[in-house]
């Protein structure tokens, strides 16, 4: 819902300024900045408390955006949007919370099923934005952000009934290995690289696709069609990704994800028709899912519970730092170098992740054979 209305609301507040996407860029930046403190807060006070704090900030964020829109204050709207990014920084840890609640055998399935909720969001979010856009009167989008605040109230209420295992007193005292030592572990490095490369590549291509389609004569309806099926492809595989990891292993799934994103680049070089954009963006979504779920699963299996806060926080800081950079650089790359070169820009990171996963996979098979 927020992705649907934020840029439009920014343009309505300051038309013609070229800053319509600043509020949504601030969301990515604040998500990155929140990941580490949110992780350590959850380590000390528990996952449920952390999620409730994040949702409480979400209530404030929604109300600030409503006030900003009613008063025509662009800067205040940017503040509210930045706080939405803080909410997202806390919400990222739902996937890790699911892993905490599952045994080792079902951890990947738990993570993927949490992300499968995005299938519901892909269709309910834009429709909720459409229903609520004028719900509070003549000022557009105020109803959408009021609904956002209301959803946070529902979230806090539901969390009362959720029991997420926390760290014991001994585990809280145990800091585990130093972060630098943990990052030298090949499995950890491969997992982090998969998340960073997959998510940043997806963001770069996804955020630039509407610009490319508009420049090539496609109407808004075509663009909306492509993005909707892209989002569906991002989350729908989550119903089976966990099963695939359980059956084939996490490394083959990461490798497959990298191949899907490279296929997206290839299809985008084949032409500029609606079917090319649709197929490319669906491949991009599937690739993101495999690399993100695979990387998350691999990371949770490579570290001890006392090390979760610092490693998960560092991982998500890197991932969403790369995402923020991709979101902000997409327009610049597209304007200065064109759509084809922009697509090629994702190849080095994906290739590095692919090579690293293949190397670790082969090393693992060699150890088993020996």
CATH class of the largest domain: Mainly Alpha
Number of domains: 2
Q: In CATH, what is the homologous superfamily of the largest domain?
A: MFS general substrate transporter like domains
Shape: globular
| CATH architecture level-2 label of the largest domain | Up-down Bundle
The computed structural class is: mainly alpha
Oligomer kind: single chain
On the 0 to 100 scale, the average pLDDT is: 87
Tags for this model:
Growth Hormone, Chain: A; 370 residues; 2 domains; mainly alpha
Quick structural summary:
The chain has 370 residues and is an all-alpha fold. It has 2 domains: 1-166, MFS general substrate transporter like domains (Growth Hormone, Chain: A, Up-down Bundle), CATH 1.20.1250; 175-370, Growth Hormone, Chain: A (Up-down Bundle). The protein contains 17 helices and no strands.
Describe this structure in words.
This protein has 370 residues and is mostly helical. The chain has two domains: 1-166, MFS general substrate transporter like domains (Growth Hormone, Chain: A, Up-down Bundle), CATH 1.20.1250; 175-370, MFS general substrate transporter like domains (Growth Hormone, Chain: A). The chain is built from 17 helices and no strands. The protein has helices spanning 2-13, 22-45, 47-71, 74-91, 94-101, 107-132, 142-159, 169-173, 179-183, 186-215, 220-235, 238-248, 250-268, 274-302, 308-337, 339-344, 347-369. The protein is globular and about 70 Å long. Helices cover 82% and strands 0% of the residues.
């Amino acid at each position: 819902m927020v992705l649907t209305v934020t840029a439009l609301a920014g343009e309505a507040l300051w038309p013609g300024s070229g800053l319509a996407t600043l509020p949504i860029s601030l969301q990515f930046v604040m998500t990155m900045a929140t990941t580490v403190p949110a992780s350590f807060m959850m380590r000390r006070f528990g996952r449920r408390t952390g999620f409730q704090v994040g949702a409480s900030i979400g209530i404030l964020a929604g109300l600030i955006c409503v006030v900003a829109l009613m008063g025509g204050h662009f800067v205040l709207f940017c503040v509210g949007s930045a706080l939405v990014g803080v909410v997202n920084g806390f919400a990222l840890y739902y996937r890790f919370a699911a892993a905490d609640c599952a045994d080792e055998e079902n951890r990947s399935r738990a993570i993927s099923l949490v992300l499968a909720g995005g299938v519901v969001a892909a269709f309910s979010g834009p429709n909720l934005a459409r229903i609520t856009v004028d719900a509070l009167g003549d000022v557009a989008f105020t109803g959408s952000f009021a609904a956002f605040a209301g959803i946070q109230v529902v979230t806090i209420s539901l969390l009362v009934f959720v029991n997420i295992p926390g760290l014991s007193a001994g585990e809280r005292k145990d800091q585990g290995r130093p972060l630098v030592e943990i990052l030298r572990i090949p499995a950890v490095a491969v997992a982090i690289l998969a998340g960073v490369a997959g998510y940043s590549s997806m963001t770069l291509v996804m955020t630039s696709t509407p610009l490319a389609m508009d420049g090539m004569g496609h109407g808004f309806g075509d663009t909306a069609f492509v993005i909707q099926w892209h989002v569906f492809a991002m989350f729908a595989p989550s119903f089976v990704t966990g099963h695939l990891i359980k059956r084939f292993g996490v490394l083959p799934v990461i490798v497959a994800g990298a191949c899907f994103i490279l296929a997206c680049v290839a299809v985008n070089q084949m032409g500029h028709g609606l079917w090319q954009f649709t197929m490319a963006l669906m491949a991009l979504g599937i690739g993101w899912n495999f690399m993100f779920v695979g990387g998350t699963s691999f990371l949770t299996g490579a570290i001890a519970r006392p090390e979760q806060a610092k490693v998960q926080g560092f991982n998500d800081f890197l991932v969403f730092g790369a995402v923020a950079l991709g979101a902000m650089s997409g327009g610049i790359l597209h304007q200065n170098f064109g759509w084809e070169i922009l697509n090629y820009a994702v190849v080095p990171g994906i290739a590095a992740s692919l090579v690293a996963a293949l190397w670790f996979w082969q090393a693992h098979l060699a150890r088993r054979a020996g």
